[in-house]
Design a protein that fits this description.
Elements (H helix, E strand, L loop, with lengths): L3 E6 L3 H15 L19 E8 L9 H4 L22 E2 L28 H11 L3 E4 L6 H14 L2 E4 L9 H9 L3 E3 L9 H14 L3 E11 L2 H5 L7 H12 L11 E8 L6 E11 L5 E11 L2 H19 L4 E2 L1 H7 L9 H19 L1
Parallel strand pairs: 1-2, 1-4, 2-3, 4-5, 5-6, 6-11, 7-8
Antiparallel strand pairs: 7-9, 9-10
Helix pairs in contact: 1-9, 3-4, 6-8, 10-11
């Protein structure tokens, strides 16, 4: 089958894990670690990265296969040899994509390239000339203006989008309507991890409700040492992230908790953790006879590889939507793969919606 051509906005840890993974699955005949081996006939190795955009001087101008291993990236290297993509990283638009404190921390932060920033016209031209079909948004949390700039370019170029971060696009009616009007698919917003803090928190919240235990208080505390956690030291950039993660949990509770009884979000930056993320979860509730109980859990994961399987499935869902002429938010895939979709469903229902979507695609292909 022809490759799915993908553009990447933000060549950070998440992009590194995803690009390494495509090379890994091309050279290893395995479905281990994938949620779905194939969607619409496409495997994980059928993705081709044709465009990369970043603003860091250590990445701009390099082939994507080299840029993904440059500082400040610090995710796990599980595929050290990645064949050249033939695509050199373009200098992007800074706008609000780089928090001021991130430019003062040397190798661990951003070193903004001293090059002319990409214009809207050049970005649209790059998407068209490379034949990009799907664009991934991996910008830092809080990049509202920068995200909207690239979304506008994707719409103009006719490119589908997987919005991996919590600037709300697919879940905002005015933006979703623009994608629907142009028959361009989008999956969003804010990608879930394969087995991460939010999905575990949601499943446990659902379990409590299914077993008749009322959740009265809960928290989710996260620490990490990658640029995502460093970026979120600026609490002013955290609004949409906290909303996304909190609503993802609230949606699974039998009864919505008051704001003072739920806390979900990043807690601190610990440099030596690098791309490892630690999550500390607690749920307090009442059982039979109003007798109290609580559950505590500690989860340790490599943050960026943990999201790659969901991104891979979302890419392939966008591709088959393009083939079928569908536009707007893909409701089932968005609900299953993202924290803040246009419509929330419990995870079992969302999973079934994805299976039905894939089955419909298979039938259409026959």
């Amino acid at each position: 089958m022809k490759a799915i051509k993908v553009a990447v906005i933000g060549v950070g840890n998440c992009a590194s894990s995803l690009i390494q993974g495509v090379a890994y699955y091309r050279s290893n005949n395995s479905s281990q670690g994938l949620i779905h081996d194939r969607i619409g006939g496409y495997g994980a190795g059928d993705v081709q990265f044709v465009l990369g955009v970043d603003v860091d001087a250590r990445k701009v101008g390099l082939d994507l296969s080299e840029a993904i291993f440059q500082a400040p990236n610090n995710t796990a290297v599980f595929q050290p040899v990645v064949p050249p993509s033939g695509s050199r990283v373009l200098m992007g638009r800074v706008l609000d994509g780089v928090a001021p404190h991130m430019t003062t921390v040397g190798e661990k932060g951003f070193i903004v390239a001293d090059e002319p920033e990409i214009t809207r016209e050049r970005m649209i031209a790059a998407l068209k000339s490379t034949g990009a079909e799907v664009m991934l948004n991996f910008l830092p949390v809080g990049s509202q203006e920068a995200t909207e700039f690239y979304m506008d370019c994707a719409l103009e170029a006719g490119v589908a989008v997987v919005n991996c971060m919590p600037v709300f696009i697919a879940s905002r009616p005015e933006w979703e309507a623009r994608f629907r009007a142009r028959r361009i698919p989008i999956v969003g917003d804010d990608i879930k991890a394969q087995i991460g803090a939010t999905i575990v928190h949601r499943v446990l919240s659902s379990l409590f409700g299914a077993r008749g235990v009322s959740v009265e208080k809960t928290y989710q505390l996260n620490t990490g040492g990658n640029t995502d956690f460093m970026n979120m030291l600026d609490r002013q950039r955290l609004g949409s992230k906290k909303e996304s993660k909190t609503e993802a949990v609230q949606a699974m509770l039998v009864q919505r908790l008051a704001d003072e009884n739920i806390h979900v979000g990043p807690s601190d930056y610990v440099p030596w953790q690098k791309d490892n993320k630690l999550c500390f979860l607690r749920l307090e509730g009442s059982q039979w006879g109003n007798v109290p109980m609580n559950l505590e859990l500690r989860l340790s994961v490599e943050d960026s590889p943990n999201s790659a399987a969901c991104v891979m499935d979302a890419i392939r869902c966008c591709k088959v939507a393009l083939e079928r002429g569908e536009g707007g938010a893909l409701i089932g895939p968005s609900a299953y793969f993202c924290k803040h979709p246009p419509q929330q469903f419990n995870d079992d229902t969302a999973a079934q919606m994805v299976e039905e979507y894939i089955a419909d695609t298979a039938i259409a292909a026959e």
